[in-house]
Amino acid sequence: MNIKILSRNSNLYSTQRLIEAAKKRHHHVEVIDPLKCDLIIEKRKPSIFYKGRMILETDAVIPRIGASVTFYGTAVVRQFEMMGVFTTTESQSLVRSRDKLRSLQVLSRARLGLPKTVFTNYSKDVGEVIDHVGGAPLIIKLLEGTQGLGVVLAETKNAAESVIEAFNGLQARVIVQEFIKEAGGADIRALVVDGHVVGAMKRQGKEGEFRSNLHRGGSATVIELTDEEETAAIKAAKAMGLGVAGVDMLQSARGPLILEVNSSPGLEGIEAATGKDIAKTIIRYIERNV
């Protein structure tokens, strides 16, 4: 097959592993920078030009679209879809996953466990917002943040009020969430491919850090999911319409709580923790569908 990986940097671990896995299974693979694609939109023959040449005979694309280039990256994925090309992440699901608020509403509608979350239009009654999530400590998240950036733990009501008021003053959209104390600064990342959990790891924040992101110095170990956690991860990926997804969950006294569903999950942490060849699983997913 002829596979294109949409990635801005062919040297990234995840991109390299996908190239390796595709070549091992005797596919032709090329990395293309979505920002260098020109889209020709017309009635009969939508097409894409990349660095001056027309892209022909593509069987599948693997979008590895960074958050900062979501708008144009999604347009490129959509153009491939119009050309009848299979994609591991559909454009509509990609857009939906990048909107934290919309994602939470979609997951809530699917009856999945979530930390209690409040979103307001820069409400002046900050005290009421805090009370809605059960008071401090609580989590404040910028809607635009990624990799743990723009996430604040406010340990007291005064601190929470100050942070929320500061964000509101800057016209920065935030969500306020209850703090799940029993999670102990750890979360679970389950990698779902084609409706199956293919790997899971527990990520623990470094000493004194409540965020467990590996980019923030957290550590990862392999974990065996409970049936309830596995079902929640599969349901979350399905609700978001994602063929490949990184589902982040907290372990709480009331069962697994979904934090977010990532449409472009990194492979390095999960492959290192589990010892599994996740890249190969993604290529096999394409083979079943093309």
UniProtKB/TrEMBL annotation:
Give the CC-aspect GO terms: cytoplasm
**One BP annotation, GO:** translation
Please identify the protein, giving its name as recorded. Probable alpha-L-glutamate ligase
Keyword set for this entry? ATP-binding, Ligase, Magnesium, Manganese, Metal-binding, Nucleotide-binding, Protein biosynthesis
Recorded hits in InterPro entries, A to Z, give: ATP-grasp, ATP-grasp_RimK-type, ATP_grasp_subdomain_1, Rimk_N, Rp_bS6_RimK/Lys_biosynth_LsyX
Q: Entry's Pfam families?
A: RimK (PF08443), Rimk_N (PF18030)
Where on the tree of life does the source sit, at the highest rank?
Bacteria
Q: Please list the GO terms describing molecular function.
A: ATP binding; metal ion binding; ribosomal S6-glutamic acid ligase activity
Any idea where the ATP-grasp domain is?
104-287
